[in-house]
Specification:
The complex is a heterodimer of chains A (about 190) and B (about 220). With about 190 residues, chain A is mainly alpha-helical. Chain A has eight helices and no strands. The chains are: A mainly alpha (about 190), B mainly alpha (about 220).
Chain lengths: ~190, ~220
C-alpha cells in the first residue's frame, strides 16, 4: 500500500467511475490506494483513542454502500471526506451513548443473597455453556458481533453471506439463547 | 475488531455490482415533488371532489395564487435541501436556502394577512368533513416514502433533515387541501397547515428513533482503548 501523501484523486476518480460500472479490478485498486488516506484522516481526528483500522473499515463500508450517490462530474475528495466525517461523528455519538448506558448499569443489586453465586467467573461459565449449546452458524454470528465486536456489515462479509441473512442469524441466535435460558431457569427453580 | 485489510478489501470487491449514479438532487426534487403531488391530488379527488371554482379563485385573487405558489416553492426548496444533504460532501446551494427562507416568509406573511383581509372571501363552500385527517394520512404516507428513499443517504444532522422532510411531505397535501377544501384562513391554518407542522414534528421525533435503529442495525461496536 502507498503512503497517503502520494494519493492522486484524479486517478482515483477514474478508478471509481470504472467501479461504478462494475469493474472489480479497478475497484480493488481504488480501495488499496484509498485505504492509507482514510486511515491517516481517521488517525488525525481520533489519535490513539481507538484502533484506527476499525473506523477506516467502517468508512470504506460507507463508501461501498454510497457508490450510487457519487456524481462522476464532481470532485471525489469532498465526497470521500464527507463520508469520513460522518463515520467519525457516528463513532463519537455511539461512544457517548455507551458511556450513558454504562453509567445506568452501574451498581446493579445482586440477584441472589449468596455472594458465591454472583461471582463473575461462574456467570461467564454459565453464559458460555449456553452459547456453546447453540448451532454452529448462530454461535459464530453471536461471537462475531458480541465478542469480537464486528459490525453487522463486516461480520456478514466475514461469513460470506448477505447482511439481511446475517441479521436473521443473529436474531435466531438470541431466540435460541432465550430458549436455552428458560430451560436453565426451569432446571434451577423447577416448574 | 478490524478484519485483515487485504481480506476486507477483497470481500468488498467481490460484493461490487454495477451501480449507476443517482440523478442530481434538483432532478430528483422535481421528480418526487411532481409524483407525490399528482398521487396526493388524485387521492384527494378520489375521496371527494375539489372546491367548486378554485381555478377561478386562482385566476382572480393574486394573494391566493401567491400563497399557493410560495407554499409550493417552499416545499420544492425543502425537498432539494433534504436530497442534497444526503449526498456526502455536497454543500446545499445558498441560493436555494435563501429561496426557501424567502418563500417561507412570503407564505407566512400572506397567511397572516388573510386573517384580516381574506382573499378570496371566506366561505364554507367545498368543506370536507375530515380534511385534517386527510392531510395527515397523505402527508404521512409521503413522509414514509421519502424516508425509504433516503434510507441509504449519509446524513449527519438527522433531526433537521427529518423535520424538513416531514414538513415538506405534509405541505404537499396541505396546499392541495387549500384548493380542495373550504377557503377560510383560520380553517386553512388550523386544519391544513398545522397538520403539516405536526408531520414535521413527527419527523423530528422519529429522527432519533431512526438513527438509533440504524445504529443498532449496523451494530458498530468500536470500543475506545
Amino acid at each position: 500500500m502507498k503512503d497517503s501523501r502520494d494519493l492522486s484523486f484524479q486517478k482515483l476518480d477514474e478508478l471509481f467511475q470504472k467501479a461504478q460500472q462494475g469493474d472489480q479490478k479497478a475497484y480493488g485498486q481504488f480501495l488499496k490506494e484509498l485505504y492509507p488516506f482514510v486511515k491517516h484522516k481517521v488517525q488525525q481526528k481520533l489519535g490513539d483513542l481507538i484502533d484506527c483500522d476499525d473506523i477506516t473499515q467502517e468508512c470504506l463500508i460507507g463508501i461501498h454502500r454510497s457508490i450510487e450517490t457519487y456524481d462522476p462530474g464532481k470532485d471525489l475528495k469532498p465526497w470521500v471526506l464527507g463520508i469520513i466525517k460522518h463515520k467519525i461523528a457516528d463513532f463519537f455519538r455511539q461512544w457517548e451513548r455507551r458511556k450513558e448506558v454504562d453509567l445506568e448499569n452501574r451498581d446493579f443489586p445482586v440477584t441472589k443473597p449468596d455472594p458465591a453465586t454472583n461471582t463473575k467467573t461462574e456467570e461467564y461459565e454459565r453464559v458460555w455453556s449456553m452459547v456453546h449449546q447453540l448451532p454452529d452458524p448462530q454461535r459464530r454470528a453471536l461471537i462475531l458481533t458480541q465478542v469480537s465486536g464486528l459490525s453487522t456489515p463486516k461480520a456478514s462479509l466475514e461469513e460470506g453471506i448477505s447482511e439481511a441473512a446475517f441479521r436473521k442469524r443473529v436474531s435466531r441466535a438470541y431466540h435460541l439463547l432465550r430458549k436455552v435460558l428458560n430451560v436453565e431457569v426451569e432446571k434451577i427453580f423447577g416448574n | 475488531m478490524a478484519i485483515d485489510p487485504d481480506k476486507f478489501m477483497d470481500q468488498l470487491v467481490s460484493d461490487l455490482k454495477p451501480t449507476p449514479p443517482l440523478r442530481p438532487p434538483w432532478i430528483r426534487t422535481i421528480q418526487w415533488f411532481s409524483f407525490l403531488s399528482v398521487v396526493t391530488a388524485l387521492a384527494i379527488l378520489w375521496v371527494h371532489e375539489y372546491r367548486p371554482g378554485f381555478w377561478g379563485q386562482l385566476d382572480q385573487h393574486w394573494r391566493f395564487t401567491a400563497e399557493i405558489t410560495s407554499g409550493a416553492l417552499l416545499t420544492l426548496s425543502t425537498f432539494y435541501i433534504v436530497f442534497a444533504s444526503c449526498i456526502p460532501g455536497e454543500k446545499v446551494n445558498r441560493g436555494v436556502t435563501l429561496a426557501c427562507l424567502v418563500s417561507f416568509f412570503i407564505f407566512a406573511g400572506l397567511l397572516i394577512t388573510g386573517f384580516w383581509m381574506p382573499s378570496p372571501e371566506a366561505s364554507a363552500m367545498g368543506a370536507r368533513p375530515f380534511c385534517e385527517l386527510e392531510v395527515l394520512i397523505y402527508g404521512g404516507l409521503s413522509m414514509g416514502g421519502l424516508f425509504y428513499l433516503i434510507r441509504n443517504g449519509i446524513i449527519v444532522s438527522y433531526s433537521l433533515k427529518n423535520l424538513l422532510l416531514g414538513f415538506s411531505a405534509g405541505m404537499i397535501s396541505a396546499l392541495l387541501m387549500q384548493l380542495a377544501c373550504m377557503y377560510d384562513p383560520w380553517h386553512g391554518l388550523l386544519f391544513h397547515f398545522v397538520p403539516a407542522l405536526l408531520l414535521g414534528a413527527l419527523g423530528w421525533f422519529l429522527s432519533d428513533k431512526i438513527k438509533s435503529y440504524m445504529d443498532k442495525k449496523s451494530n458498530l461496536l468500536i470500543q475506545p482503548k
